[in-house]
Design a protein that fits this description.
heterodimer, A: 436 residues, alpha/beta, 8-stranded parallel sheet, two-stranded antiparallel sheet, globular, B: 212 residues, 10-stranded mixed sheet, 2 helices, GltB_archl_type (chain A)
Chain lengths: 436, 212
């Protein structure tokens, strides 16, 4: 980088843009990468809790109980999912992640009494073994889909879309299609796998209602059925999911990660999680289904304050994906030299599609994946989930709530006009909610 | 009804009368039963079937035998779209026509259609075989992987990466076995043409961008 301070960098054609143009001109390919949107968008950081004072009184931080348990899927399922904390692990496939990484996620989540989720690649035995509560994704590709695993699952998540790429299908490049991944997906080894973006046997909400009924019939009406949407039109998508018979709606905002897709998709399709929560909650209230059909919010959840703010806006639980990977060792500084050798650096690595992850998480390389010790990584994930939970409880108590679900929009204010408009809470110090 | 079929005690032969287009009938079966359905059925009949033989004496709605694992499903009339979608194993026989997306994302099952199949049939089919006595609609076998297709009638609008291939003796043998298993009418095997993947889209190549 030049240290000539008289140079003025163009905002429109800055170094990153120039690099993008040069790369496109050289390769003729669009950029494919993993992770979520890197651009700045209004987020939960733009909200603050008001806390207690004269008109509200707080609960004692170390004395008074603040509940965190949540039940998902009691609308129709005979066996709803009961979680001890309102934080779940988002769907990530075996294939995109190594078997050790999947095991670590299962161990960490189980230690905290919460669920993990399969991904676009079927259910592995190890995953089922190490996840006390396992949500089985029902995806357009149907890789590895079978009725035995449906019955072994604790819940079924019909994936309509994901936050990183609403309207797009999965992608797993050849270097990650190992013999085992190929066998599970019925694909030739080493090819670039393109997952379908649409389900093969239903096309709209009326068909989806019958599809959900089929899944219930096959599983004796025991399993909760989630419907997961990428946040694009959350109000209508939530209403339609409820109409189709979902027990739970999962809404994944644009900050949500992916194993691999086109960067233009990651950065330019979908809306921020903050905006999606408000619209999804509005739809549930409109349908008189708020708290009857649960809402799980995902996409860029990092801290207990994110958890608490999502719940205060009306979500029943949240999902973490990228943060969970970081907790088990993704982008760890100890591998900085290796990340640099790959043209990146610890904290910046996003080429999950390459299968060369020095941390052994987003890879199928037998040697690299040994770097993930499932027990130790699982403990780190449990620690992280414990911290998120304690932070959310701290904020709930500070607002006088004896359960994290008692948090409400009235406990929040926004520090930017944009966030106030998106979240539907007043700009701090005013009674003004833009658009209301 | 599905509860009884899914957990049969001593009975192994069932006959369902007047189904009246019911959806999700006989889905999730997992025993060597024979289920005869006397009439038309709705969506996802015999979905995810394992082991059972399901005979639909009429037409079937969308997604008949979807994601079948094993067993046999026979439709004496026509089948709507997505017949046999993503099926991993077993045999689906449609004595009439099958609509669009027949065998979409097929993962190992066999499908034999005595009539025509609609557009986008065998789209992204991974493994398994489709036999069509009649004509195939537009974009047959688009983005197909290792599945194989035999068509007796017209198939002149193939999808991306799908091409006509040589019929060798092993393919004639395979076809003969499939037709016998399906109880198909006797025909001259040389009337069939074979289609499959040319494997040019297996790895992203900018020169193929127009095909994606």
């Amino acid at each position: 980088m030049s240290d000539n301070w008289s140079l003025k960098e163009s905002h429109t054609f800055n170094r990153r843009i120039i690099d993008d143009i040069r790369r496109a001109a050289k390769t003729g390919l669009y950029r494919i990468r993993g992770g979520g949107a890197k651009r700045a968008v209004p987020s939960f950081d733009d909200l603050v809790f008001l806390g207690a004072s004269m008109s509200r009184y707080p609960l004692e931080g170390y004395r008074e109980h603040c509940g965190t348990e949540v039940t998902l899927g009691a609308r129709y399922a005979k066996k709803p999912v009961r979680l001890k904390i309102p934080i779940t692990i988002a769907g990530m496939s075996f294939g995109s992640l190594s078997a050790n990484a999947k095991e670590a996620l299962g161990r960490g989540a189980s230690a905290m009494g919460t669920s993990t989720t399969t991904g676009d690649g079927g259910m592995t035995t190890e995953e089922r073994e190490h996840s006390q509560i396992l949500v089985y994704q029902y995806l357009p590709s149907r890789y590895g889909m079978n009725p035995d695993d449906l019955r072994r699952a604790d819940a079924i998540e019909v994936v309509v879309g994901q936050g990183a790429k609403p309207g797009g299908g999965g992608m797993l490049l050849g270097q990650k299609i190992s013999a085992r991944v190929a066998q599970m997906r019925d694909l030739p080894e080493g090819i670039d796998q393109r997952s379908a973006c649409r389900h093969p046997d239903w096309t709209g909400p009326d068909d989806l209602a019958i599809k959900i009924r089929e899944l219930r019939e096959i599983t004796a009406w025991e399993k909760p059925i989630y419907v997961k949407c990428g946040a694009s039109r959350p109000y209508y998508d939530t209403l339609l999911a409820v109409k189709a018979g979902a027990d739970v709606v999962v809404m994944d905002g644009m900050q949500g990660g992916t194993a691999a897709t086109q960067e233009v998709f990651i950065e330019h399709v979908g809306i921020p999680t903050l905006a999606a929560v408000r619209q999804a909650v509005a739809a549930l209230k409109e349908a008189n289904m708020h708290r009857t059909v649960q809402l799980v919010v995902a996409g860029g959840i990092r801290s207990g304050s994110d958890v608490a703010k999502a719940l205060a806006m009306g979500a029943d639980a949240v999902s973490v994906g990228t943060a969970a990977l970081i907790a088990i060792g993704d982008n760890a500084p100890q591998y900085d030299e290796e990340y640099q050798a790959l043209g990146s650096a610890a904290g910046f690595w996003e080429d999950y599609q390459d299968g060369t992850d020095p941390a052994g998480i987003t890879t199928q390389d037998a040697e690299l994946m040994k770097r993930v010790n499932p027990e130790a990584a699982g403990r780190r994930l449990a620690n992280y989930l414990r911290v998120l939970t304690m932070e959310a409880q701290t904020l709930a108590r500070a607002n006088g709530k004896s359960h994290v679900h008692n948090l409400e929009p009235e406990d929040l204010a926004a520090v930017t006009v944009e966030a106030a408009a998106m979240a539907g809470v007043p700009l701090a110090g005013t009674n003004w909610v833009p658009g209301s | 009804m599905n509860r009884r079929l899914q957990a049969p005690e001593k009975v192994t032969d069932f006959r369902i009368l007047r189904p009246q287009g019911a959806h999700t009938l006989a889905c999730g079966l997992n025993a060597p039963l024979t289920v005869r359905i006397a009439g038309h059925v709705g969506y996802y009949c015999a979905g995810m079937n394992k082991q059972a033989t399901v005979i639909i004496e009429g037409n079937a709605g969308a997604g008949v035998a979807e994601n079948m694992m094993s067993g046999t499903v026979r439709v004496t009339g026509d089948a709507s779209q997505s017949a046999g979608a993503t099926a991993h194993g077993g045999l689906l026989v449609v004595e009439g026509n099958a609509a669009a997306r027949c065998g979409i994302s097929l993962k190992g099952a066999d499908i034999v259609v005595f009539g025509d199949v609609g557009h986008m049939s065998m789209f992204m089919a991974q493994r398994g075989r489709l036999v069509v006595f009649g004509d195939a609609g537009e974009a047959l076998g688009d983005s197909i992987y290792e599945a194989r297709i035999y068509v007796r009638g017209k198939a002149d609008k193939l999808g991306a990466d799908c091409v006509q291939k040589d019929m060798r003796d092993e393919h004639r043998d395979e076809l003969r076995e499939l037709l016998a298993a399906a109880g198909a009418p006797e025909v001259n095997l040389d009337d069939f043409k074979r289609y499959g993947s040319v494997r040019q889209l297996y790895h992203f190549n900018i020169d193929n961008a127009g095909a994606y």
